[in-house]
Fold this sequence. Notes:
The structure is a single chain. Helix content is 66%, strand content 0%. The protein is mostly helical. Helix 1 runs antiparallel to helix 2.
Amino acid sequence: xxxxxxxxxxxxxxxxxxxxxxxxxxxxxxxxxxxxxxxxxxxxxxxxxxxxxxxxxxxxxxxxxxxxxxxxxxxxxxxx
Length: 80
């Protein structure tokens, strides 16, 4: 998703540069977007689920399991 956003921003920046209308704010937006993408990539580069993700999954399973169509898993450990 970020790749397409960066490509769109690069395209717009190149067009503005060719027309002579490139401003410093355009480069700052591109720089910000690239930094945001880099930060998100770092957060999501782990192989295993984080503790927060495991808790969220367990909570979701617990909520879905309590609808009556499946028995709930009370007493089972949430985290290994």
